[in-house]
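Human: I would love a firmer grasp of how sequence relates to backbone shape in proteins. Take your time, and here it is.
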Amino acid sequence: MMGRMTFHNFLCAMLLPVTLWATAGHGGTHERGVAITDPLTLRELDSDKLNLGRLLGAGPDASGAALFALSSMVSARAAIGRQLDRYASNHAAALAVPTGSGALARLQLLDRAPLYANSTRFMLAGIVNRMDRAYVSPQTCGEIRLIYRPVANGGTAEPTRLPMTLNLVMKASVERSVQTNSCSGTAGRWLASADLPLTGADLAAKMTAQGGSLEPMTPQHIDRIEINIQVARLSPNANDFEARADYLMMVFRYDPRRERFEESPLENQIDRDRILDDAKLAADFRQWLFEPGNLEALDRGTVVIPPQFLAMSAINQTPSSLEGDHGARGLVADREVVAALANAASAGIAFENILSPAGFMRRLNDITCTGCHQTRGIGGFHFPGVDASGKAAPGAVIAPASPHFFGDQERRRDILAAFRDGRPPDFARGFSARPQPRRSKELAGTTYVNGWGAMCYPAGTNTSPDSSFASWTCAEGLTCQAAPGASSSRAGFCFPKNN
């Protein structure tokens, strides 16, 4: 176990320079028209139309204290507090101050006070077009996500970005039917912004002007809030990328009748412990999951699991093992998977990703919130946003997003183009660790697909390649090297052959 964790911790540190390369070069060209990552543009938007306080009704200069004191946010604050208390109770031994010389080995619990302080303000860190999620909410053409980071001002000290994202999820359209031109028009405006030779205030003004991609974003479009917050870490050093860190993930949907955000199940976050403790619930889950149509959606990455099988919160621990199936193990047996896949195949379903029990297990974990965020992320985040100060302060991030985020931009762009042109979008996606081969031509040779640092399948000398991962290869001059001490050979990274 130690060997596996040590190797993966090294990779967590390695992924930051990889992401920097993606942002400065290849990745930067792919985000245009699909996401806004430029800190100067975001600063302008944050000062005006897309200010979080203004959208939630607390005023443009609202602090963390003012935001969480809103009647719409009181229930959310209470729910977050309960989960933080629960975490502290469940990890009391690890949080206790040890005797002797092991003081730095204990978990450092989040100080929640700055989140609710008068000196803290939530800053816009990124905007991401997620119309590729229109299969979940076709009536709204998918989503636009406004991602905010809390910044604590500590008097004379430099402002500090707290380890949390607050994702204000907006409906891409409030028109009630995708049969209208709303999806086409929205997608077209976003894609057109990719060709604008603008940045900063000029780009912000163009996108919020009449006909701009951000013009429709109003409080009427608010659907929910998603939070991802680092609740504890093993080291007090914010730049210690080898240290374990735990992240709390929760969702709060806006209830227009009660005019407040209510705690809601996390999408596709399987409540594994509750299912394993309830034989009937486990049987119901397997029966639902193994329906051929649901298996096909799971393979495509478009499955939507019913709420009775989902958790209301989740703890995402990083670093995690490379295998990517630990959350799914125990829910179903390999023999059940083989039988279910054969049954679906006999019904005429062709699978693209799930071609073996191992592929099934990875996919089942991959579609959960925690499984996705444990795959090729920056710590527990896929979009921490650029630190606008440009200073290498403790915990500062100068790359806007993770390799997983950048590797998915081509697929998202294809879907927007289909909407714009009136074609049926293909919502299918590959694993979080590797984009689909048929959508990765422009990514070939990069850290996303078969280049240095790409995830790959290290085929053993005594075993046949697992069919689910046979395409996970490396470019010429590189070889797939498995993680030392890994419990299986299903995960590795592309490194020079002489490395």
